[in-house]
Amino acid sequence: MSDSTQQPITTLPLVFDEPRGRKKPPPHLADLDEAGRKARLEEMGLPGFRAKQLSNHYFSRLVDDPAEMTDLPAGQRDELVSALLPHLMTPLRTMEADKGTTRKTLWKLFDGALVESVLMRYPDRATICVSSQAGCGMACPFCATGMGGLQRNMSTSEIVEQVVAGARSLARGEVPGGPGRVSNVVFMGMGEPLANYKAVIGAVRRLTDPSPAGLGMSARGVTVSTVGLVPRINQLADEGIPVTLALSLHAPDDELRNELVPINTRFSVAETVEAAWNYAAKTKRRVSIEYAMMRGINDQAHRADLLGDVLNSYGDWGWVHVNLIPLNPIEGSKWTASDPADEREFVRRLEAKGIPTTVRDTRGREIDGACGQLAAKE
């Protein structure tokens, strides 16, 4: 594709609802707040106070074996676990890279849908990248997940379980570096998080609820990405949860972005960036602009200048940071990563305009690091 090549634009629905007619996953304590967990047990004729004990096992002790829940009465243990801790997902395959510090897991959900999560351990932190949908309906042509379309939304508990599973692996010393904990969660796996808004917000609340109601993480350690669902960005700004917003922009002009990110035909670059700026202004949290560098497509010097001008048009008070992403190659795809020299020039031009810019430390290329690649192969 070049600037002069016109591609047919995919028309996307304005409403992003749960696909109908699908059986939902079993209810789990991560889907409920503390009052809801207690009420569910009482509805089943079980003592409500046991809900806090189950929450403690799940979120604080990271236990997944009912036999270890010795404070629950043996005669009721299976029934209690079945009521609030049903089995949600099965690991089909785990691949490792970076001497075991990057672990990508392919999960099979209760209905056979496949999703992926990636746990990445660094010297100073441990980050887990989670999926929010099985597949994706945004149809970005360079994305492995988008190529497969949307199967279904994930539930709050299915999203949270990916984080808890990673936390268990760290706590048990299964990742090189000794026992540790998850410090950061990024909603950058399969799916468009803001198209599954209710479940994603539920998951963010479970991650940030104080232990044992949730994992007790700081909201500042949670990043929610979006390709630019403007009404949902505005809604997120009013939630009162200061997560980091990551806007997957990928192009600074409507002509190219219409091709790379089809939702841009509904919400233009100007509308999308303005929503991101409003988010930063309301939450006092710096927005991350995600920009996948694609050779000969969006990595030209003039586009770096245009991107800087677009972002600076909202002021230079440090509201934004650009995160350049070397494209993870997809087998059989024409999309390739930018030449390192072009990447460096892109950085130089953005920094010359006062835009803080970094190049993402990409991991997991040898284990199909781009989300959706492993599921597509399976």
Automatic annotation (TrEMBL):
Keywords: 4Fe-4S, Cytoplasm, Disulfide bond, Iron, Iron-sulfur, Metal-binding, Methyltransferase, rRNA processing, S-adenosyl-L-methionine, Transferase, tRNA processing
Keyword flag Magnesium: no
HAMAP family: RNA_methyltr_RlmN (MF_01849)
Note: Reaction proceeds by a ping-pong mechanism involving intermediate methylation of a conserved cysteine residue.
Organism: Nocardioides ganghwensis
Active site per UniProt: 116 (proton acceptor), 371 (s-methylcysteine intermediate)
Family under the similarity heading: Belongs to the radical SAM superfamily. RlmN family.
Cofactor: [4Fe-4S] cluster
Predominant location: cytoplasm
Enzyme class: transferase
Known catalytic reactions: adenosine(2503) in 23S rRNA + 2 reduced [2Fe-2S]-[ferredoxin] + 2 S-adenosyl-L-methionine = 2-methyladenosine(2503) in 23S rRNA + 5'-deoxyadenosine + L-methionine + 2 oxidized [2Fe-2S]-[ferredoxin] + S-adenosyl-L-homocysteine; adenosine(37) in tRNA + 2 reduced [2Fe-2S]-[ferredoxin] + 2 S-adenosyl-L-methionine = 2-methyladenosine(37) in tRNA + 5'-deoxyadenosine + L-methionine + 2 oxidized [2Fe-2S]-[ferredoxin] + S-adenosyl-L-homocysteine
Described purpose of this protein according to its UniProt entry: Specifically methylates position 2 of adenine 2503 in 23S rRNA and position 2 of adenine 37 in tRNAs.
An annotated GO BP: tRNA methylation
Compositional bias annotation for Polar residues: 1-10
Name of the protein: Probable dual-specificity RNA methyltransferase RlmN
One protein family per Pfam: Radical_SAM
EC number: 2.1.1.192
Binding positions for S-adenosyl-L-methionine per the UniProt entry: 191-192, 225, 248-250, 328
Cofactor note: Binds 1 [4Fe-4S] cluster. The cluster is coordinated with 3 cysteines and an exchangeable S-adenosyl-L-methionine.
Organism lineage: Bacteria, Bacillati, Actinomycetota, Actinomycetes, Propionibacteriales
